[in-house]
Amino acid sequence: MELITPGFGLIIWQLLVFIALMFILTKYAWKPILNAVKSREAAIEDALHAADKAREDMKNLQADNAKLIEEARKEREKIVSAAQSAANKVKEDAKAEAQLITDKMIADAQASIEAEKRAALAEVKNQVAEFSVEIAEMVLRKELSSPQAQKELVDSYMADLKTN
Amino acid sequence: MNATKFFSLRWVTACMLVFFTMFTAASPALASGGGSEEEFSAKDLIFHHILDTHEWHFFDGPYGTLYLPVIVYSQEGGLEVFSSSNFYNDHHEVVPYQGYIYDHGHITHEQYGHVYDFSITKNVAAMFISFALLLFVFLSSARSYKKRGNSPPKGIAAFFEPLILFIRDDIVVPNIGKKDADKFMPYHLTLFFFIWFNNLLGLLPGAANVTGNIAVTVTLAIITLIITHVYAKKPYWSHIFNPPVPMALKPMMIPIEVVGIFTKPFSLTVRLFANITAGHIMILVLLSFAFIFKSVAVGALSAVVATAMNFLELLVAFIQAYVFTLLSSIFIGQAMEEAHH
């Protein structure tokens, strides 16, 4: 049964060859290859992580941008509304002032018109009084030109006095 | 899975042998057909091919054989080195040389009797070739890695990298664990590629049957055994010498566990040896049909079937290398387990 009887010499050679093979390959092949594979895997992993991070950053950046835009929009709205309200206020104020001025002018005008009117009326009254006096003078001169008329007047006064 | 493979190969071989015996027995023409010519013996042919020899026979004729160096040692005779061609005379008959007697691959001495035979036999020579091939392939791969840095591998390295990663990610890491995987990768890689390369080289015409030799497989199994026990942790030893069974059963269990230490390498040894040898025997049996029946038709058919078998053997070459490596990593991993499950 030579087939299943291990040969002594072959065992020794096999040991030598296998151990030599293992040491040489370990030092010059397996370690460099496994290290290279490992470093490549690490590089790939790093690259994937970096890509993920970049994507994340991008997303954050986009979110930031959106936020900024939103803020800017709000700011603008605020400014616009502030400006609008300011403008409105200015307009209101101007309107109010204008109203005031107008009212005052109207009131002044009215007052001056009133004063003019009164002055005019007073003058008219004075004139009328003057005219009346003049007319009365003229009438009196004419009426009392006769002694008859003078007598009659005195009589009437007298009558009035009497009744009083 | 491996068991089925193992048995199916053995089964097919057995069927072939039965078939072949039936035919030889049933045909008296064949039995008497030899006449004065040298009788063809399939058994001799097959054993000549699968056993180790001291010369490398490629083809018949004056230049078809490479005589390999014989290295023998005995206390009386000391170390002697000479060519194995000295064992043959001009008529190619085996003759003794300087008292050394060569008998079917065994060397003894007329006076000293047993001698240690360290000859560069066919298997040793084939092993040297695989050694050189493995060094060439993997050293040049390693060089290509150095040159290419982190860029993907190319050429020979690109071919072997998936296998190296397969051994790391599917054999060593799952069985031994990520933490210790780096320490055991070199052994498993060397083991896998040594077995695979020798399995494949053994399929070449005229090549040696290295991994189908029990001395080779037993050596590999013993290396696994040693590594397993060097790195074995406490639970492994306590499981053997203090098995978790009632006190009364311990005297029975401990011997069983101790035997269990040796059944693992034994199964490794026999599995690889038997699978590869069975494959070789099967191909040789198929090819022998042509000479047994002395028929061209049978020869054509058996050549076709033997070719198919050769393709199957390519697969077996890989599977057996894988299984040996896988089981080695499982044995080492089990011995290294920290806590008991």
Gist?
The complex is a heterodimer of chains A (164) and B (341). By secondary structure, chain A is mainly alpha-helical.
Which quaternary structure do these chains form? heterodimer
Rg of chain B, rounded, reads 24 Å
Encode the helix/strand succession of chain B as letters.
Answer: HHHEEEEEEEEHHHHHHH
Structural class of chain B: mainly alpha
Number of strands of chain B: 8
Average of the residue pLDDT scores of chain A: 88
Trace the largest sheet of chain B across and list its strands.
4-3-8
From the spread of the alpha carbons, the general shape of chain B counts as: globular
* Poorly predicted tracts of residues of chain A: none
User: Main beta sheet of chain A, described?
Assistant: none
Topology (SSEs and partners):
The complex is a heterodimer of chains A (164) and B (341).
Chain A: H1 8-143, H2 147-163
Chain B: H1 2-26, H2 28-33, H3 42-50, E1 55-57, E2 65-67, E3 69-74, E4 78-83, E5 100-103, E6 106-109, E7 113-114, E8 116-117, H4 122-148, H5 156-176, H6 178-202, H7 214-230, H8 234-241, H9 250-293, H10 296-336
Antiparallel strand pairs in B: 1-2, 3-4, 3-8, 5-6, 6-7
Helix pairs in contact in B: 1-9, 3-9, 4-5, 4-6, 5-6, 5-10, 6-10, 7-9, 7-10, 9-10
GO molecular function, one term (chain A): proton-transporting ATPase activity, rotational mechanism
Pfam family, one (chain A): ATP-synt_B
Keywords (chain A): ATP synthesis, Cell membrane, CF(0), Coiled coil, Hydrogen ion transport, Ion transport, Membrane, Transmembrane, Transmembrane helix, Transport
